[in-house]
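Hi L.,

You mentioned the student needs an example of a multi-chain input paired with its predicted structure. This one should do, with 733 residues in total across all chains.
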Amino acid sequence: MRTTDTLSNELEPVAIENPVAGIDQTKGDFQYDVAYEFDAGTGLTEKTVDYISAVKKEAPWIREFRQNALKVFRAKPMPTHWATKDLENIDFDKIRYYLAQGQKPKRTWDEVPDDIKKTFERLGIPEQERKFLAGVEAQFDSEAAYSNIKDIVAKQGVIFVNSTEGLREHPELFRKFFGKVIPTGDNKFSALNSAVFSGGSFIYVPKGVKVAQPLQAYFRINAENFGQFERTLIIADEGSEVTYMEGCTAPKFSTSTLHSAVVELVALKGAKIQYITVQNWANNVFNLVTKRGVAHEEAEIKWIDCNIGSRLTMKYPGVVLKGRKARGEVISIALANDGQHQDTGAKMIHAADETTSNIVAKSISVGQGRSTYRGVVHIPKHLKGCKNNTECDALLINTNSRTDTYPAITVRGDRNYVQHEASVSKVNEEMIFYMQQRGLTEGQAMSLAVNGFVNDLARQFPMEYSVELKRLIDLEMEGSVG
Amino acid sequence: MSSLVIQDLHVTIGEKPIVKGLSLTINSGEVHAIMGPNGTGKSTLAKVIAGHPDYTVTGGDVLLDGESLLAKEADERARAGVFVAFQYPSEIPGVSIANFLRAAQQARMAEGEELDATAYYKRLYAKMDMLKIDRKFTSRSVNEGFSGGEKKRCEILQMAMLEPKFALMDETDSGLDIDALRIVADGVNTLRGPNLGVLMITHYQRLLNYIVPDFVHVMYDGRIVKSGDKTLALELEAKGYDWVKKELVTA
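Structure written out for the whole complex:
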């Protein structure tokens, strides 16, 4: 265990030269449509922000919100005093901050690298979707599926729209909480998102309504193209329940190297929100996401967060336990393969009596891959009857793997209960040999060991997600064995 | 009819020679026992044949049905029909026995071919019934928190499911109480037949009371120094390993 103070000295920025081949956008492999009026161009200025706001026909208060956020973004330093210096390699001037529908880069199916094609095949992704995911087609026709879900939940009074529509059509519902759970100035990347956000889901679940089927961002995002800077706000009114599933398990063939989302959840009295993410990013992506929820009295917020791929992921889903007997939970799985750094964890801020929180984090580091767990548990002195349980387990594969744990647990007063367990284990050679002796290849043996390691968590995922998670792990491990 | 032929095998671990010119032929349907004092290279033998990376073969060959195993990876040898029942089998946390065996079966199928799950479970349950193993057993993680007897049961079940051509029992009996010993013996006796060759590696004669071998070999200093039928085991029991050592010296 190390303290965060020493962190900045020991980081060796590993420049990864586009390991997934074919997605290096600096080489001008892509052609863009001529209709530049919906393209914000590269770089970020006041004009970019105005442009985005104008395209979205936003109310003046939102435009001001964005402009203010841009100032905050510029003023804030990179958090490299505690986080990796690799962040300095992000070139903000080379990023396109907004591409409207139909403006996606074009390429032909033949130009898509073979390993990506193979991955799609192995994951069983339908032909039509493959082309979309690979950036060959600008749109995937899932409107039908999406409006179907939307119609079903609309009957219960549930509002499920994108961020633009949410702010424009339902300001009375969303304005109150928008940017309140995660203020613009929370961190540099929440400020960036606040300036240029686009896409994402705005959901309102009325009092007492229990949404039977999980709402899926999968359809949403496909229907309007991937957002780099999506903004999600979910409000579960008193006594309501909702599950939201985000992401898609195919490698996101992103043309952008920066993804920075903000997700805010509000669970009012007695409400339950479950937010599930399974993401598999291309190896050149910086995935810097801020996720937080506020749980009011007797409310419950559960984050299930699974991160595979990316060059650097920094994500620490949090719950502010604001009301008495509120509950918060984070279940996190991170897999760092060669050239990847998964810097993930959880934050539990206890702000009322008898609140409970649970954090279970499992990380897998393969080859040169690196996993970092960062946790914050805060229980102030005046509270009583609060409980936290934190477990973080790391699995190392190959001697070069690296894992660090930075748990910051602040508990004051003597009327609260905290438990913390951490373990680091290695996939040992005897175990692999044993499995090989039963006929499994080394790669199959590795992936079985990894699947076993995350099994108790994966079981909490909805069926199709745990199946896909298994497939993803299989693919990752297969590639990691010479 | 299959054969496992070990020809003048020499093995080192690091620089140290362990096996020094061992030859042995096992055919389908035969049960061989290798006995010998500690430190004579008995246990090395099973691992070397299975392809454990710690050992280096410096001479000789191991042939399965005439084809050398030595250039093959451990998993290829396993799929070719070599099974080792380990003395200390590894734990695989979070992986149930049923899933493990399923993965092992799947690994034996051609690429693109999917294991029929229903047929697989039917077969698994039939084997478990045959070996008198409780159905709940296979939902436990492989060897995790198992007693000595449970570990052996798990090995025997895997052997029954994978139907190897040759099973190498690596000191399977060491440290077992009489009940656990019976599990192993009953299992092997049930699976024994014209399609299976067995090599039992053991320090003690007592296992051979339960599994009666066709051939008994005495290993000493990395070689087989004496071979015979089951009576050799009894003679060893009566006279002790010193008898073999003395005979060697006088020879």
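You could point out the following to them. Confidence is low (pLDDT under 50) at residues 1-37, 101-105, 137-145, 219-226 of chain A. The interface with chain B takes residues 428-431, 433-442, 444-445, 448-449, 451-456 of chain A (CB under 8 Å).

Best wishes,
N.
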